[in-house]
């Protein structure tokens, strides 16, 4: 009987904690700043690259808009890596490949991966080993199609 009373008391405490959980306010720092879409230069296409990492695979997406904000391309595909930095690099590489294949003259690229963008914006930057192949491919495409 003593065991049953102790069990019921423990259950009662857990139910109370569950019921009252909303009363606890926790102030979390803002981790992501949402910025508005910035218009590219006239007659330029802007490629926004993004990635979503899953447990066994990830997805990448590319959205291209013109200088008026009109969506001219929106694609997504599955990639076989679950390492966030690699997935972001794959998205940028895919966007660069699309622009090169379409022989687009005036393009710019946007990604929320600071590591990838810093690597690409600095000509002497050493890439993280996980993205070095993707970065070299992007640089190769950019040098063969300078716009």
TrEMBL record:
One of its GO terms (molecular function) is nucleic acid binding. InterPro entries: RNase_H-like, RNase_H-like_dom_plant, RNaseH_domain, RNaseH_sf. Residues 48-144 form the RNase H type-1 domain. Signal peptide: none annotated. Coiled coil: none annotated. PANTHER family: OS05G0353850 PROTEIN, POLYNUCLEOTIDYL TRANSFERASE, RIBONUCLEASE H-LIKE SUPERFAMILY PROTEIN. This is RNase H type-1 domain-containing protein.
């Amino acid at each position: 009987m003593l065991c049953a009373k102790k069990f019921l008391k423990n259950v009662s405490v857990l139910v109370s904690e569950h019921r009252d959980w909303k009363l606890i306010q926790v102030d979390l720092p803002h981790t992501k700043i949402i910025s508005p879409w910035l218009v590219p230069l006239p007659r330029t296409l802007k490629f926004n690259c993004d990635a979503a990492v899953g447990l066994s695979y990830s997805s990448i997406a590319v959205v291209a808009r013109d200088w008026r904000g009109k969506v001219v391309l929106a694609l997504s595909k599955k990639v076989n890596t679950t390492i966030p930095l690699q997935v972001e690099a794959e998205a940028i590489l895919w966007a660069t490949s699309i622009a090169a294949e379409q022989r687009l003259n005036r393009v710019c690229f946007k990604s929320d991966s600071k590591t990838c963008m810093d690597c690409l914006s600095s000509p002497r930057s050493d890439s993280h080993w996980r993205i070095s192949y993707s970065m070299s491919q992007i640089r190769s495409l950019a040098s063969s199609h300078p716009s």
